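for ur thesis appendix - Glucose-1-phosphate adenylyltransferase. copy paste whatever u need, i formatted it the way the template wanted (i think)
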Amino acid sequence: MSKKECVAMLLAGGQGSRLKALTNKVAKPAVSFGGKYRIIDFVLSNCANSGITTVGVLTQYRPYLLHSYLGTGEAWDLDERGAGVAILPPYATQKGGAWYAGTADAITQNIGYLEEQDPEYTLILSGDQLYRMNYGEMLAVHKKNNADLTVAVMPVDWSEASRFGIMNCDDEGRIVEFEEKPAQPKSNLASMGIYIFNTDLLVRTLEADAQDASSEHDFGKNIIPTLLAAGKRLYTYQFKDYWRDVGTVASFHEANMELLGEQPAFDLYSTEAPIMSNASTRPPAYVGHYADVDDALIANGCTILGHVKHSVVSIDAYVGERATVIDSVLFPGARVEDGATVVNVVLGTNAVVKEGATLGDPKEETIAIGDDDVIEKEAE
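the 3d part is after this line
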């Protein structure tokens, strides 16, 4: 196979346990988002829009739905000859088999795929973040700096900096120190977990790390400090646009709400860098004669007969007569039956809130209801 300039390795095996009921049956990257998307759509669309057409997707936790959804990559224009999406789950060897032990170990177990593709550069991505980035611009910075590794960073609020891996740099953006969740951070440039490596160096470093019994086989904890100590050329690429790591129910709910309004924080309607999806074709949404819809995203296949305000209603969801949905996210096929009220809730795929039931409170934490769950009306 001819040598490629850059191949993406997309880490998509996360369980996402802090999303609670939302990931009981699916991996975090496969969780529904924004009415017609899944979380992984955003990074796959970034790859396509950046001209990176060879993507290895490393899966692990509850992978079936994700595998089925990805298919050949056609939905994201990633199915061209000699490229495309490759599913890379953990596998057994003569030495046995185990789940990926860390982010670096996941790539180590798939060095054979990298060697087959033979890219000059390797882009490491996470499948559970929401943002729009041109990776070509990051690669251009990497080459300009003659870097061995480039880490995407973004400024965070100083009060939040201790929650992140922090990059301390010189005036040219070269990394001079890395601090993992420092109590007293020296900068507010937080790692986004997006890396571009020179592939030859990446492979050598991963193979050495795999032999280190004391290593946690993690890019932030082990690989970056090792390369810094070896005097390699590590640089940052500063990103200042919208980015969210939706790790909790509250942050997931907030990110969905940020899609709403006349000037949303994240624009799903951009034609310059569109977000693509493998959502099935469905008929148009139906909004009934007595329905009342205000500041909401209503996906195809929905039936809206009641009141929906400041909410995201996904494919094939149903809101019955006299029902009320406010500040909520309804996943595909979710049903809020006649006279029911749902406020500040994320309602899972095919979950049902029965007639007359009340769920959620605007003054309390956002509630997450799992796929196929049924909420009955409380007895009076």
